[in-house]
Each structure stands twice: as structure tokens, then as C-alpha cells.
Amino acid sequence: MQTIYKYLECRSFKYAQILLKKMSLLKFYPIDVTYKIIDDKPVVMLFGKALGGHRVCVVDEDFEPYLYVIPRNKEVADKISKIQVDDKGTPVQVVRVENVNKKYLGKVVNVLKVFTKLPKHLLIIRDVIKDWDIIELITEYDIVFVRRYLIDKNIIPFTLTDVECEKVDMGFKVSTFKIKEIKQDSDEIFETPKILAIDIETYNPNGKGIAPDVNPVLMISFYGEDFKKVITWKKFKTELDYVEFVDGEVDLIDKFKEIIEKYKPDVVCGYYSDGFDFPYIQTRAKKYKIKLDLGLDGSELKCFKRGRFETAKLVGIAHIDVFKFIKRILRVNLDTSMFGLNDVAYELLGEKKIDVELDNLAKIWDDEPEKLSKFCEYNLHDSYLTYKLLQKSIANIIELVKIVGLPPYDIIRMGFSQLVEWYLLRQAPSYGEIAPEQPHSDEIRRRRSLTFKGGFVFEPKPGLYKNIVVYDFRSLYPSIISSHNISPATLNSEGKGEQVPLKDEYYWFSNEEKAFIPTLIEDIVKRRMRIKEIMKEGNNALLEARSQSLKILANSFYGYLGFYAARWYSMECARSTTAYGRFYVNKVIEGAKEQGFNVLYADTDSCFMSLEGKTKQDAEKFADEINEGLPGVMELEYEGHYPAGIFVSAKAGTNGAKKKYALLTEKGDLKLRGFEAVRRNSSQIAKEVQGKVLNIVLKEDDKEKAMKYVRSVLEDLRKKRVDNSKMIIHTQLTKDTSDYYSIGPHVAVASRMKALGLEVGPGTIIHYIVTSGGGIIRDRSKLPEEVKQGNYDADYYINNQVVPAIEKIFEVLGYTREDIAEKEGQKKLGEF
DNA sequence: TCCCAACGGGG
DNA sequence: GTGTACGTTGGGA
């Protein structure tokens, strides 16, 4: 009754408005969504770009928070509507309860839809109800309010949206309209958002870690279409026309605000700007009491940090941390395992950072400002690379925005499982499904204790091989889930289904009706196939990106089913999926052996084999034959041919290491997997030797030359002919020296630096060289400037740095660790 | 062998 | 803001 009354009131009001011609129709692309409590009511605010190019905000005051309860008897509804609790002096109650029919894990159920006044009341109500034994389940109380709005209203960000509205003034920076009706009829996408990339350089005196409380921002660069600028507060002579000078750091921050205000970007991006640039600027601004009120509603920049989760948010502008998206999502398509801007830009763009000695910036800033031009170029170039990287990944991001239905701000900060979960949550209402509850601590603990067998691994025989072909089964799991109807709803349920190829467990999945999850996967797989079909007529970067995103999402479903925090978690489904996976990979291996290929290595979804005199055409034909025997959408891809490759042994024993190999591509590049003996904090000499050895072995196929090279390096090390600078090990201090329980070399050095009056604290990178002499290593670790050229501990560098980086490679070539030493005419190397 | 600290990205 | 959650790896005990 109340609902009907409200509806009529609304209709008559709307009618009156239209008569008075106050209403207008607005078409816009939503970019960012948030909400605020105004007059004790939640108000959803959608910021976006209107057709015509101006930025707008539309607000909706008529959306109510709700949750679902599955009751065990008829009294529950009544009992719930009578709940009266107190929240810090404010009474909280249920607004109303509706009876609805829904499905829970495929089964039809009667559900109570419980409405409250404010979003946070849902959690309070849930706390009251959760232990009642007259309820079966309480769920969806923790769906983020604005996401609930987008799902229920069927609004996809970056997609053209029609709004019937009325202009209002809420004091925002953009025209604001009150929504009477909102809907999306078209699937037209906002393809050309205005993007602004930013990057900062900070004062960072030699060896010091990052300390925003102490060290100022020196320069800020901006890069957009037809826009480049560097602002700095030290004046010097320069020919760079994009450099602009201000009087100090305060002016720098003011100018930063001004540029963003004037440029009016839809998207702001940086590289690790969630964890560095924005929080750094915020800390500096706070120090000067400058308000960073860049939000389109006048709100300030918000930076959060909780554990590893760091983020920076600007209301109305989509802040994209390019690093985060690449590291979390795009990484599956990258060869690099290093996610610094330099490595990523090199792989994706073929461009590198400008090579400057960043350690010298502080000194040059203080003493030789005339040399700052180079650093301004460097600063701008980083923004340029970030801009280019976003340009390269924006199609992927937008595709995920389209499928998952959340704003880019959310999408780029999500991992695979979250993307799947929000895709499921978005789709659930269309299938009449309500979501399972998120697991709580006990359940999480229980789930984490369960394990399951992963993919099948055919262990490689360590060795150097020629003419390797690689097959890839990357869509294996999604296609298995789809074609075998794997889902919590069909598990061991009524109806026929074949038994999963597992020895000690008996699962089957009913194939009478396609379930929720397999349907969605099939949808994605088919969507991708359609795109691939179009791509055959002519390749296109946009379609490629769309196909890539669909693949990413499809591939994430299986991991999701076995992920402890998933709502639609099912250990049985995860186990069955991998069981089928092992079954099919083994089928490929057996087939290859029969045809005379030499199977070198297989892991989960890929298979490596050498041609053994066969041709590349034979290899492609083999894939076709396998494909003919595969059910449904399953497909084996011929990934490519590599002229040479090396598989090395695992750390212990002689078995081949999983995921540890180097391949030489037909273009002549090295494709490295798992050679982690060389890390960022390894000495330069170790990195150098590993790279060179792999190059000689794979490109020139000359193991003697490689051995000769290594011997000469070891000889140089012993004869103290290697420059000290290649010996420096860099390790970051993460807490105060006194807080360390175990004193590693870097901690010992840091303590001594402190004693010398040097400023050392959390974040400081300690550079040290291990010098020769007796006793434990930490006592022999010295600051580089304390060490005379050549006074390093050659044995330490040989045994702990250089040899570990290459020994596995030489083992494959038939040399032992001792061989390297003996032939050199020196004493044996240390224990191994 | 197990367990805990380090590390990532940024300057 | 109906939240805020790492995941891997190496070294030392």
C-alpha cells in the first residue's frame, strides 16, 4: 500500500514537472559513481560526460538499501519488521519487508527482501538476525551501495545513459541534475575519454628511502593529448619549452591543482600513483595546509592504506593506477616478471625510460641546478610512458567495465576473483539468483585448510633442446566448466551426468539443465569466439583487447571456484575441473608420443615438445587432429615454434624445475621463466653474468664459450679486477634498526651508519659490499665508499651471487659446480 | 624442515 | 564507506 501511494505521488509530481517544462532529457556516459548521506537519506551521484562534451553529475535520491533473508517459517517476516535497535543513540529499524521468489544455488526459494533507511543499517540488522535459528540464510547485506545501484538499475559505466531529470544546484563543480528516470537503451561506448598522466620527482638525498614527511616534491609532469608540461620550483636555464617555474613547493602544489582543474580530465593516471604520487602529494599538501579539493563535488583527494591495499580516489574523475592494472590483470599476457615502468614499457611499447642517474637528483638540485633539464625530460617521459601504457590497455579496461559493469576505478583495482565475483553478482538478478554469503573467519579458515590437486605436470628432463613447439590449452578450464556443466547447483544433483575422472571421489554434474555459472562462462567463450571470427577478416587492436579481456575473465572462473573467499566457492567443482584438465592434457601427451614427437614438458595447460625431424606444419597438423577429438568449445592452440630452449633442474635434485626455462624466439629474443636467482637486490655482476650466459648458450649454442666467459669473470673476481660498483648489494630497511630481531648484513650496516651520525630509518635503502676477511658476513659488510677498489670478498660473490645465478644452466650443459672451479686451477668451491 | 621477514612499485 | 583483502620467496633458526 505504501509502495503504491509513493508511486502515485511520484507519477503525479513528474507529470506536473513535465507540464511546467522543467524536466529535460540528458544523455551521458557515467564515469564515476559515489554516494552521500543527505538529510538522512542515501543519495547516489553519477559523474560523467554528457553528449556534447561537458561534465555533469546526476543524483538519485530514491534508491533504498536492502538485504535478503531465507526464512524457515512464516513468523520471520513479522519478527524482522519489528526489530528496534540502537546505533550510538540513533534508533535503527527495518523500513519494510517484501516477499519475493528467487533461486538460491539453482533451487527455488521464498525470500524476504528487507529494506532499511541507510546502507550501514543493513550490517546492524544483519548482526541482530544472524544467529536466529528461524532463518536459513542472510545475504547480500554487504553489497557496496553504489554497486547495488548500478546492478539494480542496469547501468553500465562508460555506456550511453538516458536520464530524465531536473537541474538542481548542489554546489558542485559541474552541472547537476536530479534523476526522475534513468535507463540505458544503447550500448554505445565512451571510447575517447580525456586522459591526463602525471608523475612526480622528489628530493631523495643519497641512499635515503622515501620520506614524504621530510623531502619535498621537486617537479611534477603532465602528459595528455596535445599537452605536456613539467612544473618545478628551482629556476635554471633550459631550452625545454614545456618546463614552467614556480616559486616553491606550495606554489607547485597549487599549480598542480590548477592544471587538473583547467584540463578537466575524465581519467587521471600514474604509474603506482595509488601508492606513491598521490599519497606523496597529499602528505606535502597537508604539511602546508593546502586543501586538495579536486573532487567534482568539491571533496578532497582521498588516499587509503590498509596493509598492501593502497588507493587514491578523486570523486568524479576516474583515477587509474596503470601499474596496478598491469600487475594484477595484464601480467598474464606479459613475458616480464618485473613490473617497473622501464620493463613494462619496454615490453608493451618497445620504449624505455630516459637513462639518468636518479641517485644524483638531490645533489644536482642543491648544487648544480643548471643540469636539471635532463631530469625534467626524464620526469615528462615517465608521464608520457604512463599515458601510452594506458592508451594501450584502455580497451582492455573498458571491455572489463562493460562485462563486469563497474566503473574503471573499481575494475583496475580488482584481482581475478573479484572480477568474477562482481560479474556473477551483476548477472545473478537476471537469472533470479540470490548470492551466497561471503564466508566469515571460521569458514575461511576451514576452506583454507582444504587443498586440491592442481594441473598435471610432466616434469622436464633438464637439457638444451632445439626446435621446440609449444601448445597452449589456456582456455582449458573454462571450456571444461562449460561443457561438463560444472557448478555448485548441478553437483551430485538429480538427473544424469557422467562421473568425473577422479579416483577416490565420486562427483557428477547433472547435465539436464545448463546451470548459472556454466551458462555465464559459455556466454563469455562464445562472445570471444564471435570477436575472433570478426578478427579473421582483419586484425584490429580494439578487438584483440576485447578478446583478451574475455579470455582473462573466463580463465578466472576456475580459480574463483577454489578461492577461499568466494561466494560461489565449491571445492568439489574446483577438484573436478582440474581432474578433467589432467585427463585432457594427458590425452595430448599420449597422442604426441604416438606420432613421434618428444614431449619435453607439460604443465597444467601447456605442452612443450621437440620436433625430432618433423616440420612445423606437422606440429600444426597435430593440433588440428587433437582438436577434432575435443568436446564442445575446447581448443588446443599451437602457440609457436622456438629454435632453441633450455630447461633447468629444480633447486634440489635432478628433476626438471617447473616453470623454469628459457626459450629463444624466432626473432632472437629470450623468453625467460622462473630464473629468479637474480633479483633486484642482487649485485650487478650476478645479473650481468646470467644474461650473457643465456645469450651465448641459446643464440650461439657454444657452451665452451659460455664456460670460458664465466671462468674469465670468476678469474677477474679473484684477481680483484671487477669494479666495486658491480659488487654493491641493495637492501631496503623496513623498520628501525633496533626493531630487528635477526640482524642481517644490511641491518648491521645501517646500525653503523647510524653510529656515524647518518640518518637511517624505515625505507632507507642500504647499499653495501661484502668485504674479505674472517668471521660472519654481517661484520664484513661495508658501505661502498668505505671499501677500497678490489677489497671485496671474491669467494662470497662467487659462491653466493654469480654461481647461483648460472649453475643450473651449466648443470644442463654437463658441467658440475666443481668443474667451473677445477678447470680454473683453483680450489673447489664451497658446499652445494 | 618450518617459520617469519622481506619485497614489490615509486625517488 | 553495505570494504579496504597479498602472495611469493629466501634466509635463518
Give a quick summary of the entry:
With 832 residues, the chain is α+β, with helices and mostly antiparallel strands.
Number of strands: 29
Radius of gyration, in angstroms, nearest whole number: 31 Å
CATH architectural type of the largest domain:
2-Layer Sandwich
- The whole-number mean of residue pLDDT values reads 87
- Gap between N and C termini, in Å? 81 Å
Give the neighbour order of strands across the main sheet. Answer: 20-22-23-21-24-25-26
Helix content range of the residues, please?
25-40%
Name given to the CATH homologous superfamily of the largest domain: Ribonuclease H-like superfamily/Ribonuclease H
Largest sheet, strands/sense/barrel? 7 strands, antiparallel
Choose one word for the global shape.
globular
Structural class: alpha+beta
Q: What is the CATH C-level name of the largest domain?
A: Alpha Beta
Number of separate domains = 4
CATH topology tier name of the largest domain: Nucleotidyltransferase, domain 5
Number of helices: 24
